[in-house]
Write a structure and sequence with these properties.
By secondary structure, the chain is mainly beta. It has no helices and 10 strands. It has strands spanning 3-9, 18-23, 27-28, 32-39, 45-54, 60-61, 66-70, 77-81, 87-92, 107-112. The strands form 3 sheets. The protein has a 5-stranded mixed sheet, with no helix packed on it. Strands 5-4-10 form a 3-stranded antiparallel sheet, with no helix packed on it.
Length: 121
């Protein structure tokens, strides 16, 4: 995949936790979503998604750049740099509650969702 999850940082505190990602190619970030999955009775990852975040369509991230998705509320930012000087795009989920907060490690799944059909009910 052209975008990869590097780490989930500071899990358990909504104001501090975030997911760090890295672009292996130039991409439209809007073709990707992150989900927090649940666990089945045997302790394995289920196919039930507890939380879902789709990045905004039309936001281009160049190869070698990083993306951080913060759980808390905030204003999306571009033009930032990581501590190593890598360009960084910062996004906010908008939750007042921690997402990566289970006693067992939560599982983040990155989805490629290039095609999305919308229909009104």
């Amino acid at each position: 995949m052209n975008l990869e999850i590097l780490a989930i940082k500071e899990h358990g505190d909504a104001s501090e936790e975030y997911v760090m990602l890295y672009a292996n190619a130039t991409i439209d970030l809007g073709n990707y979503a992150i989900v927090d999955t649940t666990f089945n009775k045997k302790g394995g990852v289920s196919n039930v998604m507890r939380h879902y975040y789709r990045f905004p369509l039309g936001h281009i991230v160049k190869k070698g750049e990083c993306v951080s998705l913060w759980t808390c509320k905030g204003k999306n930012q571009t033009g930032l740099k990581t501590t190593k000087g890598t360009p960084l795009h910062r996004f906010y989920w908008g939750s007042s509650h921690a997402i990566w907060n289970d006693n067992d490690p939560d599982v983040a799944e990155l989805l490629f969702v290039k095609t999305l059909e919308k229909a009104a009910a």
